[in-house]
Design a protein that fits this description.
There is one protein chain. By secondary structure, the protein is α/β, with parallel strands linked by helices. It has a single domain (28-318), classed as Rossmann fold, CATH 3.40.50. 40% of the residues lie in helices and 11% in strands. The chain contains ten helices and seven strands. It has helices at 18-21, 44-55, 67-81, 96-110, 134-162, 184-203, 255-267, 269-272, 279-286, 308-318; strands spanning 35-39, 59-64, 86-90, 115-118, 165-170, 209-215, 275-278. It has a seven-stranded parallel beta sheet, with helices on both faces. It is globular. Bound molecules: nicotinamide-adenine-dinucleotide. The site of nicotinamide-adenine-dinucleotide (NAD) has 32 residues, from helix 2.
């Protein structure tokens, strides 16, 4: 089916570009016949994943609480691929009834779910241990612990029955434990889900289901110059837009490229089972030259791709939750 370049006034996207999706093993058919659920798939990282998976032939179920962006995501992906391959299901991932409905609608439309991308999170849930509300920590665990566990319980038994499945999580810390200045509430939730997902890897070993974490550090499309200062928060560094012009942030990774790294990781899920990969490692494996000379913005450090540690430290210094990427 012919692919089409689609734009959207609602979603902050660029048309899918083969620069990102032209790597060994990544083809328009490499995920044909597979169905994926992407939680938080209506913006930024998750949207990049959903679009890349559909481009590679998969059906995608986008599960998100943002109805406007979710409906637009369904329209864009279906139009982009010229087929009825995307279903948006509005859910609050913290509610069991919503997960049950997600499962029912996904199976009614596509008959099965082979790939589960746990990606939803509220990036604004952050703050230091001293000075944050216990309710914020609870909310972080509700999305990132409870929500991930309910999705796993909904979809993994069917994968085991069919002898094939891939489960992944958009982790923040895997092989590093960054200081995450003031971001404790966020990272505590992320750590809970990472732990659940890695435990699942042990439980399903040898059953055809491969489980890994992928840290999409630095993925997003943001115009820092237009970023409004967030309200001052105790324990958070004082906001200074200039700090975002640090070398390297010129090289922010577009969500479409993040999607390519996810497809590549899914295709090699058996090699990643029980482990985690940071996105720059995935690019190295793909021999992905980002930013390349043609696309790199001028200035700064000349647009070199950040090292793992630079990416992690940049993200930690910035902390999550200032605006939410892509908004
Ligand atoms: N962008 C990065 O640099 C980065 C780095 C490391 C980890 N991550 C992780 O990647 C994931 C995506 O990050 P992002 O930057 O795209 O975030 P984002 O805030 O742009 O997107 C998160 C999505 O999740 C949805 N969501 C939030 N709460 C929900 C709920 N209760 N039920 C259903 N949907 C809900 C939102 O509507 C949104 O569409 C997150 O889990 C984040 O922690 C991102």
């Amino acid at each position: 089916m012919a692919k089409k370049a689609v734009t959207s006034e609602i979603l902050n996207i660029e048309p899918i570009d083969l620069t990102y999706l032209n790597y060994t093993g990544i083809t328009e058919e490499c995920l044909a016949g597979k169905t994926a659920v992407v939680t938080g798939g209506a913006s930024n990282v998750g949207l990049g994943y959903a679009r890349a998976l559909a481009w590679c032939g998969a059906n995608v179920v986008v599960a998100d609480m943002n109805e406007k962006a979710g409906n637009e995501t369904q329209r864009v992906i279906n139009e982009e691929n010229g087929r009825d391959c995307c279903l948006f299901v509005p859910i609050n991932i913290t509610q069991q009834a919503d997960i049950d409905r997600l499962k029912d609608q996904a199976f009614a439309k596509f008959g099965k779910v082979d790939i589960l991308l746990n990606n939803a999170m509220n990036m604004r849930l952050n703050g230091p241990v001293l000075g944050s509300k216990v309710e914020d920590l609870e909310a972080s665990f509700q999305i990132s612990g409870k929500g991930v566990m309910m999705c796993i319980q909904a979809f993994v038994p069917g994968m085991i029955e069919r002898g094939y499945g891939v489960v992944t999580y958009s982790a923040t810390q895997f092989h590093y434990c960054p200081p995450m200045v003031g971001g404790t509430i966020y990272t505590a939730g992320k750590a809970a889900a990472t732990s659940l997902v890695m435990s699942l890897a042990n439980e399903v070993k040898g059953k055809g289901v491969n489980v890994f974490c992928l840290t999409p550090a630095g993925v997003g499309r943001m115009d820092f110059s237009k970023m409004p200062a967030p309200p001052a928060k105790e324990g958070m560094p004082k906001f200074d837009p200039k700090m975002f012009w640090m070398p390297g942030f010129f090289g922010m990774i577009p969500p479409e490229a993040g999607g390519a790294a996810m497809v590549y990781s899914i295709l090699h899920a058996d090699q990643l089972h029980g482990s985690g990969i940071i996105i720059s490692d995935a690019f190295t494996a793909m021999k992905f030259d980002y930013p390349n000379k043609e696309t790199a913005p001028k200035g700064g450090n000349g647009g070199h791709r950040l090292t793992d540690m630079e990416l992690t430290m940049a993200f930690c210094t910035m902390g999550p939750g200032y605006t939410g990427f892509g908004k």
